[in-house]
Design goal:
- This protein is mainly alpha-helical.
- The protein contains 16 helices and two strands.
- The protein has helices at about 5-10, 15-30, 35-45, 45-55, 70-85, 95-120, 140-155, 160-180, 195-205, 220-240, 245-265, 280-305, 310-315, 320-330, 330-345, 350-375; strands spanning about 180, 185.
- A hairpin with a 2-residue loop joins β1 and β2.
Length: about 375
C-alpha cells in the first residue's frame, strides 16, 4: 500500500472519506475536466458527448445545468463539515470564545482577499484605482455563507436555526417577487431589471463581473447561498447523529434529496430556478442534487468500502482552495505545452484537445498528491 493510501486510510477515522471525495469530485470539473466531453464529441461525433458538454456550461439565465451545481455543492459541503464538528459555544471560556471569533473573522477576511486575488485584483495594475477592483468572488461568497452559518450554529439552538433558515427562504422569495424600486424588481427577474441588479448597481463597490447589470456573486443573492450552507449544517448534524445506523442515514439522505429536488421544480413556475439570482428554487434544486450525490458517495465509500477509486478525488478535496486559486494564478496550459508539446503537436484536433486536458489534470493532481504525501494542507 502506498504512503498516500495509508495516510488517507488513517485520516478516515477522523473524517468521512466520502465528504472529501465528493468535494474533490466537485472541484475536478473546474480544474479543466469540463472540456473532456467536448473533446470526446469531436473525436466520436456521438450526440451523448455533445449533450454532456452542454451540461458543462452555465445556464444562460433561467434553468439548470450540472455545471451550475459545482458552486452550491461546495458551499453545502462546507456546511456539512460545520454541522459535523461545530457546537454551541455558550459553555466556553471568554478566551476560547474570542479564539473562535478571531478564527471566523480571519477566515472570512482571508477568503474575501483571496477572492480578489483570484479575480486578479486590479486589472490596470499599480498605481491602484480602488474603483477598478471586483470585490465579490466565489471564495468571498463561500466565506460569507460559512461565517453566517457558523454564527448561527455557535449561538442558537437547532430549532431556532431552522426558524431562521425558513425566514431567510421566505424573506428572499418575497424580496425577489414583490419588492420594487423604480423599474427594478416587482417580480421582474430578467438580467437587466431584477432587484438584485439594483442592489449591485447601487451598493456594490468596485466593478461587476464583465460589467453586467447584476454580478453572479452579487450582494443580495448571498441570501440564497447562505441557505445552501445552512442546509449542509442540518445534513451534517443528521450524519453525526445517525452514523451508527448507516442504512437509516442513507434512506434519510435520499428522502431529503428527492423531496428538495421535487419541490424546487414544482415551485419553478412561481419563481424560476436561476443561478445568478440564486433564487430559493435554485437552492432547493441544488440542495436536492447535492444531497443525492452525498448519499451516493456515502453508500459507495463509507458503506460499501469501495475506496480505491475515491482516493484520487479525496486528494483534490483535501486542498481544494489552493488548487482553485491555482486555476487562476498559474498558467497550466504553458506547463502542459512545455512538458508534453512534442507529444501533442502531431495529434489531430480532437485527440490534441483530449490529451491536453488529461495532461493538465495530471499535473495539477501530481502537485496535490505531493502536498498530501508531505502533509501540506492549506486550510482557511
Amino acid at each position: 500500500m502506498s504512503n498516500i493510501e495509508t495516510e488517507i486510510k488513517t485520516k478516515k477515522t477522523k473524517r468521512l472519506l466520502s465528504i472529501d471525495a465528493l468535494r474533490g469530485f466537485d472541484m475536478f470539473w473546474i480544474l479543466g475536466a469540463e472540456g473532456l466531453f467536448s473533446a470526446l464529441f469531436i473525436i466520436t461525433g456521438l450526440s451523448f458527448f455533445n449533450l454532456a458538454a452542454n451540461e458543462m456550461l452555465h445556464s444562460a439565465w433561467h434553468g439548470f445545468t450540472f455545471y451550475d451545481l459545482i458552486f452550491p455543492l461546495f458551499i453545502l459541503l462546507s456546511g456539512v463539515s460545520l454541522g459535523l464538528a461545530a457546537k454551541p459555544i455558550a459553555g466556553l471560556s471568554k478566551q476560547q470564545k474570542n479564539e473562535k471569533y478571531r478564527h471566523a473573522i480571519k477566515r472570512l477576511v482571508l477568503l474575501i482577499v483571496l477572492g480578489v486575488l483570484y479575480n486578479h485584483g486590479w486589472g490596470t495594475g499599480i498605481p491602484a484605482d480602488f474603483g477598478e477592483i471586483r470585490y465579490v468572488s466565489v471564495l468571498g461568497r463561500i466565506g460569507l455563507a460559512w461565517f453566517v452559518a457558523a454564527m448561527l450554529v455557535w449561538h442558537f439552538k437547532t430549532k431556532t436555526q431552522l426558524y431562521i433558515t425558513a425566514a431567510i427562504f421566505v424573506g428572499y422569495w418575497i424580496i425577489l417577487s414583490f419588492v420594487s424600486i423604480g423599474d427594478f424588481g416587482g417580480s421582474n427577474l430578467g438580467p437587466e431589471l431584477s432587484i438584485n441588479a439594483w442592489v449591485d448597481q447601487t451598493m456594490l463597490p468596485g466593478i461587476r463581473y464583465q460589467n453586467l447589470a447584476v454580478d453572479p456573486e452579487g450582494l443580495l443573492s448571498n441570501l440564497g447561498s447562505i441557505l445552501n450552507c445552512l442546509v449542509g449544517v442540518f445534513i451534517g448534524r443528521l450524519m453525526s447523529k445517525q452514523k451508527q445506523v448507516a442504512n437509516v442515514l442513507l434512506r434519510n439522505l435520499l428522502i431529503i434529496g428527492v423531496v428538495s429536488l421535487s419541490a424546487g421544480w414544482l415551485l419553478n413556475s412561481f419563481l424560476p430556478v436561476n443561478k445568478t439570482l440564486w433564487t430559493p428554487t435554485f437552492v432547493l434544486v441544488t440542495c436536492g442534487w447535492s444531497t443525492l450525490f452525498l448519499a451516493l458517495f456515502y453508500w459507495l465509500i463509507d458503506m460499501q468500502n469501495w475506496q480505491t477509486w475515491a482516493k484520487p478525488f479525496a486528494i483534490i478535496g483535501m486542498n481544494s482552495i489552493i488548487i482553485y486559486l491555482g486555476t487562476s494564478l498559474m498558467n497550466w496550459q504553458y506547463l502542459v505545452n512545455s512538458f508534453f508539446g512534442g507529444i501533442l503537436s502531431p495529434l489531430s484536433e480532437g485527440w490534441q484537445a483530449l490529451w491536453t486536458i488529461v495532461f493538465l489534470l495530471l499535473l495539477q493532481w501530481l502537485l496535490l498528491a505531493w502536498m498530501y504525501r508531505h502533509k501540506i494542507f492549506i486550510k482557511v
